[in-house]
Amino acid sequence: MKRLVPLVIDAVLVILFCLIGRQSHHEAVFPGLLRTFWPFGAGLLLGWAVAAVLRADGEFGSAIRRFDARPLWPTGVVVWFCTVAGGMVLRVISGQGTEPSFIVVAATVLALFLLGWRAAWKALR
Fold first, then answer.
1. pLDDT for res 60
2. Are 115 and 81 in contact, with CB atoms under 8 Å apart?
3. In the chain, what is the straight-line distance between the N-terminal and C-terminal CA atoms, in Å?
4. Distances (CA, A) of 67 to 42, 73, 85, 114
5. CA geometry: angle 76, 81, 84, nearest 5 deg
6. Chain-centroid distance, C-alpha 42
7. In the chain, which ranges are continuous DSSP H helix?
8. Where are the transmembrane segments (predicted)?
9. pLDDT in tens, 73-106
10. Integer Cα distance of 16 and 72 in angstroms
């Protein structure tokens, strides 16, 4: 259970990013939330999978049991990158917008969120 807390934190922060984005564009916040969230949610899951594989060192089963998603490097950076890149690719595939300014804003806000809590955890530890 304790190992899922970082995933829950990441997911809540990605949802918050989507809520803020919808609100700032004066869109109905909750009715379209799933449409906005799913590409980034899928990217987040991809990031977790990639980070776990990178930490596996050939023994994937035991690595998953030992996997700690709290470190800023490399885990946080991998999760952030995959969330942004995967989210943008899936938005393109699904016909959603990916204006350059949106990519910059999304990358910046998600870095603040997904890397920020990890940096704070490390500083407080």
1. 67
2. no
3. 20
4. 19, 13, 23, 17
5. 125
6. 9
7. 5-24, 33-54, 60-66, 77-93, 100-124
8. 7-25, 37-56, 77-94, 100-121
9. 999 999 999 999 999 999 999 999 999 999 999 9
10. 20
Asked if 115 and 9 count as a contact pair (C-beta separation under 8 A), the reply is no
- For residue 98, report the phi and psi dihedrals to the nearest 5 degrees: -145, 50
* Strand stretches in 10-105, DSSP E: none
Query: By C-alpha distance, which of 122, 109, 111, 3 is closest to 55?
Result: 3
Domain limits at 105? 2-124
Mark the ranges of the chain whose per-residue pLDDT is less than 70. Answer: 1, 58, 60, 62-63
- For the chain, the domain total comes to 1
Decide: 104 and 54 in contact? Cβ < 8 Å: no
